[in-house]
Write a structure and sequence with these properties.
Elements lengths: L22 H4 L8 H24 L15 H8 L3 H13 L3 E6 L3 E6 L23 E3 L10 E3 L13 H6 L24 H12 L6 H7 L7 H24 L15 H5 L1 H14 L6 H24 L4 H8 L12 H4 L10
Antiparallel strand pairs: 1-2, 3-4
Length: about 350
């Protein structure tokens, strides 16, 4: 029999809610906004807090104007909200129309999303959801002793002007203080988080940064070979993107349009689906058989061949083989993982990240 986990004052969830801004409900400007659109904005807001946090740590996730942004693909949002990608496109367009987000294309594979705080309702407006913690028309009995025992008082009710709660982003920026005069208070924030070493924290940040493009399983494949070092983990990520870029250039030079969606992680699901297995096979060749003399060159060539093959496969599976497409494919050099390297590359004097 399942146990009903009733919510009480002692087990209130902490951080398990999506931050839906009450202004989306109270401002008449957003009265036609669906709950699904509100949920999508909440997802974007939560992701934005991550970008702001990381920007404060290392300056990442800021554009040239020092504005924070996020990456959030439609397929990920569709999976989380349990709707179709077409529905997410409609919801995203609606948010953009109301100036709740701005979506700008960045390169061939990404769309940067800038998230805005909803506008508060005009002063004097009658809001629909004015309370902060609770509201009730009942009277409450004050649990006091002595001559005041049993005196009734009105339940606290937040005025309309006080309904502008902090957004998720603002909460991240508030410096929390603790009151240590009462032994029942929570412990200081410094003791609330597990201590991790710098390298592990940087690797975790790397995973979070590329979570939309590189599946977590891919990281699980190569992290055991990184000895807990951020630079080695970053080398794997950089090499994967470099290999994809070089592979894409082959198709562009052969005549494929630069705006072709087949060259993006977001549209070509073949890239992600087999990436973990490709990395595993490359590492097996490198470390199990111990026959690779130039690890860096081999891994790059292996991944380049992988992306080239997946692009070709996607084109053949999704498009009619017209003479133009056939010409494009024939113009692309087909690179395989078993490609042999010339002696000059094997004997390079450049110091690699990984020893032979």
């Amino acid at each position: 029999m399942s146990t009903f986990n009733a919510m009480t004052a002692t087990n209130l969830p902490n951080g398990n809610y999506l931050p839906i801004d009450l202004n989306l409900i109270n401002n008449p400007k957003y009265q036609e906004l669906s709950i699904e659109a509100m949920m999508l904005h909440a997802l974007y807001t939560m992701r934005m807090t991550c970008s702001i946090h990381n920007s404060r740590q290392d300056g990442s996730w800021l554009d040239d104007n020092q504005l924070p942004y996020i990456y959030f693909s439609n397929d990920e949002a569709a999976d989380l909200l349990r709707v179709s990608e077409r529905k997410i496109t409609t919801l995203r367009n609606r948010l953009a129309e109301l100036d709740l987000i701005k979506v700008l294309r960045h390169g061939l594979k990404n769309y940067r999303i800038y998230v805005a705080n909803p506008e508060a309702p005009a002063e004097g407006s009658v809001v629909k959801l004015a309370f902060k913690n609770y509201t009730t028309s009942k009277r409450m009995i004050e649990p006091t002793t002595g001559e005041n025992r049993g005196i009734e008082r009105d339940a606290n009710f937040a005025a309309p002007s006080a309904q502008n709660l902090l957004t998720s982003t603002e909460k991240q920026q508030v410096i929390k203080t603790t009151n240590n005069t009462n032994a029942t208070h929570m412990e200081p924030a410094s003791n609330s988080y597990p201590q991790v070493d710098k390298e592990s924290a940087l690797i975790a940040g790397l995973q979070a940064r590329y979570a939309q493009l590189i599946p977590n399983l891919v990281f699980q494949r190569f992290l055991p070979f990184c000895d807990g070092q951020y630079e080695k983990a970053k080398w794997f990520v950089d090499t994967i993107f470099k290999a994809k870029y070089v592979s894409n250039q082959q198709f562009l030079k052969a005549g494929l349009p630069a705006e072709a969606k087949v060259l993006t992680f977001e549209e070509n699901e073949y890239y992600k689906n087999g990436l973990a297995d490709a990395v595993a096979k490359a590492l097996e060749q490198i470390y199990r058989f111990n026959k690779v003399k130039n690890i860096e060159a081999f891994f790059f060539a292996f991944m380049r061949g992988y992306f080239t093959e997946k692009t070709r496969q996607y084109l053949l599976d999704h498009y009619e083989l017209t003479p133009e497409l056939e010409t494009t494919l024939s113009g692309v050099k087909h690179v395989f993982s078993k490609e042999k390297f010339n002696k000059n590359r094997q004997n390079t004097t450049k110091k690699p990240i990984y020893g032979a």
